[in-house]
């Protein structure tokens, strides 16, 4: 078990460490990213560490003019919407993420038996940031480009897949024990569009890292309709949010290993509510060939970290 | 066929009319709301008018301190999170929405054969605005209250259902020909939670207006898992967004009448893309006992209104 976004704003020690440091400074500082990654391991005793990073880190590393604005998210100076923009997209070289790899090596040295999960954003979600210019509710420019200029779309997504491969390979070469491909916005697509425009590129990423022989987790939100397609992209573990029960997810997948699916919003509820949900989820997860307990999406900043620690204790008590 | 949010920012004549007038001023001015409602009928020739309003209009009418902030959405001065807040929620009296009813009477006089669809926000979506204090991506306080204090939740949702009934009844008494209950955020819930915490209250609204004998449309976004539950709430027509094909929606529903499901983002695409999508959707909609062509969500502000007109022409040509 681990929590998506377990390293971050929910922890007072994180907020203290980050004071006066920008998100990108933290993501490219080997000592700081290692320390932030370790904080939830020490505090909560979760079973895995997830690299502290951001899905736009490889874009920044490659030289793109992008910023992470507090309260907004990633903002791209010049949104990419035409062939010139796509062709101007820089290629990510391994040495540009060397400071992240250095952080991974520090972590592998400190973590001992605790596995480290590497991390990259999937091509669709990265493309949406680049095309929209920032976080988007409707992804209208992305979807319009995808459908109206499919050749250009595939070129852009292919380049982003290459970046994700370089970024993940750097983490795996440095010793990461598993990877998670985040396609945060994939749930905005129909299965038809996902299979045509997105799956080939995510599959390219997942197959390129297959040679490391580590578990590959594939995660999205609101992807109940896409679970089989996301598994078909080459995932060993499929993330499931809270919208469908794990046993139903396993039924759709015909077996396999799933990850999820406590609604992070419920961590704001009372303990009896959380306990009942954890018990239900563990019971439903028994339908799978394997279940990694997690949230259905990331820890929300306002959550009480003691509640997270208590959830870890309960999961370990019920599933030793 | 009609378009959700057909009356609004996509139209230059709307932007001109609204200049210097706040959203609430427009929603409570009978002549202005009637004129705005008529604009897309004149321009696009859609088959139905939808009352220009906002889902928080009944809350404002009842005296709640709420504002609609441009670029943000509804903002509530004092979020409701405890029993005192719930009990202080005012009751909506029919005379408080008399100016909206007057607008409906004006519209019924002008529209001739074109039906007018009335409009209300469903209890869950209204509750989320009140509890979170504004638009929310995660609905964490709403879900926490729902699960941790179910008695209080049901009291709040019951009061909001009463408001929706009063608001819809005022529109129906004034001559509206159909109604749509908008549960914009219901897709954030699992079916289990929807059935336990939301369905009873939406069902109360839909059954209270059954005596008018008009079609009742029930709409949400990302509700592929909830279609049957939303029908079970007492809907004659179930809205379907673009995430699942209409024939699959009809299979889940076991028949019936559906509304949808063009992805509004695709209206930013090229015409051949839009035409192919419209043809596909009309073909898939033939699986239903009836299909109201619409978008899967509202018209986005940046869309070219000529594209909307062209879609209307195509739908009328293909399905005369």
From TrEMBL, chains A, B:
Molecular function as annotated in GO: uroporphyrinogen decarboxylase activity
UniProt: substrate binding residues: 5-9, 24, 54, 129, 184, 297
Coiled coil: none
UniProt keyword NADP, yes or no: no
Pfam families: URO-D
Keyword Lyase: yes
Name the record gives this protein: Uroporphyrinogen decarboxylase
Upper taxonomic lineage: Bacteria, Bacillati, Actinomycetota, Actinomycetes, Pseudonocardiales
Gene that encodes the chain: hemE
